[in-house]
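During the reporting period the student researcher (J.K.) took over the structure-prediction task from the postdoctoral fellow and processed the backlog of single-chain submissions. One of the processed entries is reproduced below for the supervisory committee.
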Amino acid sequence: LGLSLHNMKTTIILTILCISLFAAADILFQEKFDDAAWESRWVKAYPKKAEGTDGEWGWTAGKFYADPKNKGLQTTQDARFYTISAEFPKEFSNDKKTLVVQYTVKFEQNIDCGGGYVKIFPASLDQEKFNSESEYNIMFGPDVCGSSTKKVHVIFGRDGKNHLVKKNIPAETDEFTHIYRLVLNPDNTYKVYVDGNLKESGSLEEDWDILPPKQIKDPKASKPSDWVDEKEIPDPTDVKPDGWDDIPKEISDPDATKPSDWDDDLDGEWEAPVIPNPEYKGEWKAKTIPNPDYKGEWIHPLIDNPEYKPNPSLYSYPSFKYIGIDVWQVKSGTIFDSIIISDNESDADVWFKEWETLKVGEKAAYDTQKEEEAKKLEAERKATESQSKAEDDEGETEDVEEDGKEEEEEDTRDEL
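J.K. obtained the following structure tokens:
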């Protein structure tokens, strides 16, 4: 009986803990753009109004899709800046909590140069004045430009400075919808997923230069004046061969002959053109040998950096209030959708599974569209070919009729 009571108490405690953890889990922001009322939830900004380069947003499922109701925000004009933001239901801090940021982005236009990232802001953001200089907490997502830039940005704003991740995280650049997830943990670690695949993970302190380095070069140390760091030296016993410097770099071309029309009185004395001397060996240099006095490469000694202080709260921000999109695109057509911010990955997992289902239908729709386009092109090709053949046949018929008329006229003249 005592054991049963103990087991019952343990079960109750575990149940309470599970319920508490579940209750503590919170979706902090979510947006699927499923209804036309999205415009009442998002605020458009026009920081480039004076230049006339602000782009307009569209609301669409795109050119190919699994579900026509699954719409998102799309950039619609080439060579434009796009700026828009939404407010969270309530301001929050991620102190002592996990922060998960996940969303989908579709480069339907086969992007050549443009951003597909989002920014998360503190309460200080003025949505109407939102622009590329607005200070943010986190910038996350893909950025593509030519062949040199195809990466996922993870940038943290701290004290007016933006700190870029030191690792290269590859981004997807095809025409399909991809899902990006950033996870920040209270132990100062992070994870970046693309399409459910872990692309990068590690320590905030090690993978960003947010804090001063733990160690620095000793300012009092310097390389000794007698330090020998030359691995090899000229062989002092090596001697330049006799006559080395007597060999000219160029010589007269022995195969050249004076032109037959050359006039010495008018043209001057003829000289054969010069060519590189095949016997010339260049400047003589003694062969090298290992330096017996070589001490190795001098390494500057390090000391502990007095300015370094560990910060266990690198992951934490006191205020999150807005999410925004602030991108430049040369070729428009990018679709942003399914944005979720939570303090646990299980909420994001639900949306990830939805994406897994939708991507199958999206690929099928894409393949169908390409097949139809190929059939249309083939039909147009055949129609053009048929029309060209008909025109050729008509031309041949006219030529035959014209030849017949000429023959009749010749016969008539012969009879006369």
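The committee noted the following: The helical segments are 2-24, 38-41, 204-207, 264-267, 345-415.
J.K. will present the remaining backlog at the next meeting.
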